[in-house]
Amino acid sequence: MTTRRTFLASLPTTGAAFALGGAFFDEGPAMAQGASDPLAGHFHPRGKAPSEHTRRVIAEAAKGLPFDDTRDFEEQARGLIAERSNRKIIADAGNVAFDRAEYDFLDGNDVFDSIHPSMTRIARLNNNYGLYNVTDGIYQVRGFDLSDITFVRGATGWIVIDIGTVRESARAAWELLQEHVGEGLPVSAVIYSHTHGDHFGGVRGIVSDEDMAEGRVEIIAPGGFMENTISENVYAGNAMNRRLFYQYGLLLPVAPHGFVTQGLGHRIPAGSTSLIAPTRLVSEPVEELEVDGLRMIFQNTPRTEAPVEMNTYIPEKRALWMAENVIAAFHNVYTLRGAPVRDPLNWSRYINRALYLFGDEAEVMFQSHHWPRWGNDRIREVLRDQRDLYANINNQVLHYANQGVTINEIHNVYQTPESLQRKWHCRGYHGSPQHNARGVIQRYLGFWDCNPTTLIPKSPSESAPLYVEMMGGAEKVLSRARSLHDEGEYLLATDILDKLVYAEPENADAKEALADAFEQLGYQQENPGLRNSFLAAAYELRSGIPQGIVASSSSPDIIRAMSTELFLNFLAIRMNARRAQGLAFKINLATPDNGERFVVELSNATLTSIEGYQADDADLTLSVNRADLETVMGGEAAFEDLLGDGRATFEGDISILGQLAGLMVEFDPRFPIMPGTGARAEVVTAEIPFKGDIGAVIPE
Ligand SMILES: [Zn+2]
């Protein structure tokens, strides 16, 4: 975290960027050539106002929405016990982890011409910041984190269901609970509903090693929790971290022309994450347990919103916890930061099963994001609608695919049924119908649309120059793009400008024009992931990628949870295979403290490993305790250090280790996405550094 503060201290503040805009940014070519002028008050000196077309799109969108249904606002406000008086949550490292005041601009009834009205609505609903009563003995703290933190009164203490992303928000939630209804009772149990970081990362904020050592706290999770928590984010972790800058808009300041909300909640707090392994796993499809004196029925829902996840019914309170399987929005089938596409039909089936298992009885339904639903009719309405929402996109996208509609067309063809479009809890606040529809085709048919032109095409940078030549050169492309822009045809404008920036990555006019088109598209989106992606690309085209220090805040908890096999597999991904041509060796690796053994072999420029074996003809045999190996896995020590001080021992040709280390590449999350944005360093306007951790927990 020291690294993080050093990084931040090296950057000008947002205010300075406003005051000194001309000094930081060279004179904008778009301005010089008479495109629309920058907007005063926009966070970026070259940011533009919404055009008349964008304002019309937004006004039209408002007409079709069911604003007369205000039940969400009533449910969101119901049961408020107290708001937190301090608007800032300060991280242990001293930075501001979350600042509720940044979202004050949403509190009134202002209409924003740069925000889709439906997004303004969900952003307002996400503006809660306090302790709420759900039903007798159940409380939620909302708005301290991307997710809610839920407290259920047990016989001897508090059962915490999902515990936020960072220790600081968990601790702040605990303090607010204790201030009002906690009665000074301790934490008696923690339940992780699923494997995403915003549901377990805060655990060390309120549970200590002593609590665990003395058996004071039981931690319950679905079977397969640890494996799935870590594995989802390791292999493509650096790419996912980079893509978060688009989906979550990490460089965009909170502002009417920037970041507004993430849909599930507001931002991920900038604090420290943690993980304590579960002490009890729920393995049966439906399993009943007594947790601190309270009867709970767990329903495992594997391969839904997460690889492993579980709903919970508390019969005594007629309370149904739907984890993240049902929220007040359409969730991601395909998640833009990158993840295997989820199975919407399976997801729907588990919601239906919850409806039939608990739907007749439940009087309150609550979950890990947004707010509860009260009354049996309302619960069944939401469960049925959500069941149909996920089944419909699965079935109807495949219905079209079976008639030849491709991944490149489906988002313009598929629509959520009109009756569900009029339900707020089916709006695309996390997954948009468009990108989810493309995800369904990806899941079943993959990336290829079956047109051989797109099967093994030239890379964009190779084919783009021909397009630009055939279109008559850069000036013609720019001129036509500007007229398309003036007509409000922003997607068409991006199509031709994209070719131009690939052909001429240093063409500042092209990048500026593309940024302007992306910005208008961003303003028009209802879905935060789509808005943030367009606005993030506009930001990077205008300013380049900030070149500050890459922060490494890998939680030791996460490293400990990573299997050695997963770590070895990740080494194989980090290895530069071209440099490994012609090399061949076998290494025996043993970790005596946990009794694991591996053969690691380099052959054919490929590193493989197998668990449970030692080779007779190994070139090198290494022995190191797993506990010491973790310092290497976490990047705190090199393997040579362990050999130097005797924590690791060897037999055979130790020079192999140096060869292997020399083949490793450190992934850097600052790689360019848009052409011509990599080597420039201007200004950052949000307090989130780049992170380069393997296995970093990714909230969802
Ligand atoms: Zn979540």
Question: Which descriptors would you attach to this protein?
Answer:
700 residues, alpha+beta, Nonspecific Lipid-transfer Protein, Chain A, 8-stranded mixed beta sheet, 6-stranded mixed beta sheet, 26 helices, 21 strands, 14% strand, disordered N terminus, binds zinc ion, zinc, metal ion binding, metal-binding, Alkyl sulfatase BDS1, metallo-beta-lactamase superfamily, Alkyl_sulf_dimr
Write the layout of secondary structure elements.
Layout: H1 2-9, H2 14-19, H3 21-24, H4 29-32, H5 52-63, H6 71-77, E1 80-83, E2 88-90, E3 96-99, H7 117-125, E4 130-135, E5 138-142, E6 149-153, E7 158-161, H8 167-180, E8 187-191, H9 209-213, E9 218-222, H10 225-231, H11 237-247, E10 280-282, E11 286-291, E12 294-300, E13 310-314, E14 319-321, H12 344-358, E15 364-366, E16 373-374, H13 376-401, H14 410-413, H15 418-421, H16 433-445, H17 460-470, H18 474-487, H19 490-503, H20 508-524, H21 528-543, H22 556-561, H23 564-574, E17 585-591, E18 596-603, E19 606-611, E20 620-624, H24 626-633, H25 639-644, E21 648-652, H26 655-662
Parallel strand pairs: 7-8, 8-9, 9-10, 14-15, 17-20
Antiparallel strand pairs: 1-4, 2-3, 4-5, 5-6, 6-7, 11-12, 12-13, 13-14, 15-16, 17-18, 18-19, 20-21
Bound molecules: zinc ion.
